[in-house]
Amino acid sequence: MAKDKSTKEPGRLKQMWQVFQMTRRYDDRALLYIVLGAVLPIVAGVLLAIFLSGGNVFTMVLWIVAGVLAGVLIGLIILGRRAERAAYSQIEGQPGAVGAVLRSSLKRSWRGSEMPVAVNGKTQDAVYRATGRGGVVLISEGPATRTKRMVDEERRKVNRVLPNVPVTIITVGPDADSVPLHKVPRTLAKIKPTLTKAEVIAISNRLQSMENQMPIPKGIDPMKVRAQRAR
């Protein structure tokens, strides 16, 4: 049975146009940066074709084509980054925004979860954790004065389990010295690597196992607890 045309996914060009429209709606400077990024390489290609081709038509065409291709590529890169920044600006300040960044924008050398490791039920402030070659990073979401206690508690937990692993704190919130939401992946990438890939995997698994250790309720004898039968 043929799919309904109304539910057909838009083509690549239409998707790019929609992304551009969304970006321009939330970023006034996006169009200027995209145009400059696309035009400057083309102009450079034309100038190089004029001064370095030596009158050879084939060489001139190659320089111009190279300039056009470079302009298109740079323009698309700028569009992608500005679109990402515009998307983050729409969720910045909302609960779970840091989790969305960790889910979609982390580099391969980092591991993180969209689920926080600590949450304040009243204020919705939260602490997230990422693990990479730079060690363990705790990212607080909310004002620093409200998240400090949770961050300190999570840092003590990590230091207790992994005493020799560096722990970095990143604050995302309304404070003047906090990191903007769209700069979280870049800030993680700037942390100096001190661990190997194997150590990162081991540390991540150790922290995960620590989370999975659920305490047994009071009044229950752990020696008499039976595993549930599979249904």
Automatic annotation (TrEMBL):
InterPro entries: DUF4191. The chain crosses the membrane at residues 30-51, 57-79. It comes from the Bacteria. It comes from Leifsonia virtsii. The keyword Transmembrane helix applies. Pfam families: DUF4191. Keywords: Membrane, Transmembrane, Transmembrane helix. This is DUF4191 domain-containing protein. The lineage of its organism: Bacteria, Bacillati, Actinomycetota, Actinomycetes, Micrococcales.
